[in-house]
Amino acid sequence: MKAYILNITFNELQPAVTRQVVLPAGATFNRLHETIQTVTNFTDSHLYQFEFEQLIVTNDSERVDEAKRKSYKGKPVKSPTRLKIDAYMEVGQTFSYLYDFGDYWTLTITVEKIVEDYYFGFPTLLAGQGTAPADDVGGVEGFKEFLTAYNDETHSDHKNMREWASHQSFKEYDEALINEMLKQVKYGKTQWEHIQHDNYTVLEDPYRGPKATAPVAEEKTASVSEAPKEAVVTQQTTTLPEALQYVKAAVNLYGIISVRDFLRLYEMHHAHEQLHVKELQAILLDANNVALLKDNQVVVYNDVFVHEALDRAENRQAFVRRTFKKSFYIPVYSEFMRYADASYVEATPYQQKLTTMLAHDFYEGNEALAHDKVLELVVRLQGVDANFNTFINDFLTAHMPAQKERMNDYLQVISDVAVTTRLWENRGYTTKELQAKNAPQKAIQQKVGRNDDCPCGSGKKYKKCCGK
């Protein structure tokens, strides 16, 4: 199947930030844009533009409309929606990609090669280097200032930058996670008859390499820093049961966690006791340990731990796509380890209030029975694809108050329970916590129309100044 190997480079960034991607033929410019967004830290929050020597492609509808009357920069302007890239892909072809007319990120894209033996219906990241900037960081200079504060624990703005980065879904370069995300940019049919696979698990492919056979492949975790050799001798070795308990806790709290993220979390909770890559590998090569985890609803894959509720390929992929750039809620160790018990639910005053109401109205004062019903509802809400409307409807079907006025009381307390429940979708955060974290950011966001005054203070219209 025909595909294009593209080299994508951020202009003006040092050290260099580059990505090499193989993209199946037949993509629209919208799909190419989506691919670029996926392999960077951008979140598709701004306008974009591709520019060739004789053509401009942009999702700026005003610019497209204006170009119908008069060409822009002497070139025709087209919408990316149904326009396919194939006619513009020639070996050696170079064109630019502009994203966010405010921060003004410019990337150079070069068609390195056209191949005929790529059989997946979605793009693949082949190589890359450097962590890409986040949305709204302030352009090249703003990104430099951000990195200085983000990486320096002694910097006065270090904590603020870390929090802001979490809000912006900023994530350091991670090839494996990016490729998991790219599987969702699907617009072609994967030709499995041309791929070596076992039950649709790829064994070998020229663009993806051989599949590792061990549960944890050493090359997958090579980027996890190990302690110096002299330090390893003095450090304690993690006991097997505790490591397995930690896996259970992580999966119960997050639903899915990669081995890389697991090791990072473990290191944060164990300042004086390190779990080494080879130790974890040895643990997971023991079939008894894998079986023990499975008995506790944990499924082990090459580089990820998965709750059995998500153990279907389509569920895993959709979930990873939704949560890929979200940060983890990380409680203190004692609280974290409570999640090793699959029945554990963090108690809240709203759960107790609902328990009291149910006991009084439906269970003749039996608070133990009412509490069990509340826990059932919370567990449902915690899981994948929880739907709040379905949650309410199911509850009211089983617990319809006799008095109509009482209905509003139940609706309010159920809503309070829902927004204070720790969710897999939120990487363990409650909806209320995320709303509180994001509130200041939302308050200062402002969209600039092309006919508004330019925010740079020049006195010109935005379209005549920074919006060019």
TrEMBL record:
It comes from the Bacteria. Residues 3-177 form the Plasmid pRiA4b Orf3-like domain. SUPFAM superfamilies: MM3350-like (SSF159941), Sec-C motif (SSF103642). Signal peptide: none annotated. Pfam families: PRiA4_ORF3 (PF07929), SEC-C (PF02810). InterPro entries: MM3350-like_sf (IPR024047), Plasmid_pRiA4b_Orf3-like (IPR012912), SEC_C_motif (IPR004027). This is Plasmid pRiA4b Orf3-like domain-containing protein. It comes from Caryophanon tenue. The lineage of its organism: Bacteria, Bacillati, Bacillota, Bacilli, Bacillales.
